[in-house]
Design a protein that fits this description.
mainly beta, 6 strands
């Protein structure tokens, strides 16, 4: 399963982790393939990552997300704190 944008477009590495999103990355230090969820991303709430794969270029593209995420970040919505990225955990 691939994460989608609101218009049904599959996400790829041209959709960076920006304001209002939470992103998981295949490699540490926010590198490699990613999955993005939050405003504009479908689904916004993912209770189980088992059916999802990392997307984009780089290590881990096409790999399952569950038990394979090495880093993650949550970026505050632009309306609250522009550009503030917070590592998860």
């Amino acid at each position: 399963m691939v994460a989608m944008l609101e218009d049904g477009t599959p996400m790829n590495n041209t959709y960076p982790c920006t304001g209002g999103y939470t992103c998981l990355f295949y490699n540490s230090t926010f590198k490699g393939a990613t999955i993005r969820q939050g405003q504009g991303a479908k689904p916004a709430n993912i209770p189980d990552y088992a059916p999802y794969n990392f997307y984009g270029e780089g290590a881990g593209s096409g790999q399952g997300v569950k038990n394979n995420a090495a880093s993650g970040m949550s970026v505050a919505p632009v309306s609250s704190r522009p550009g503030e990225a917070r590592p998860l955990g």
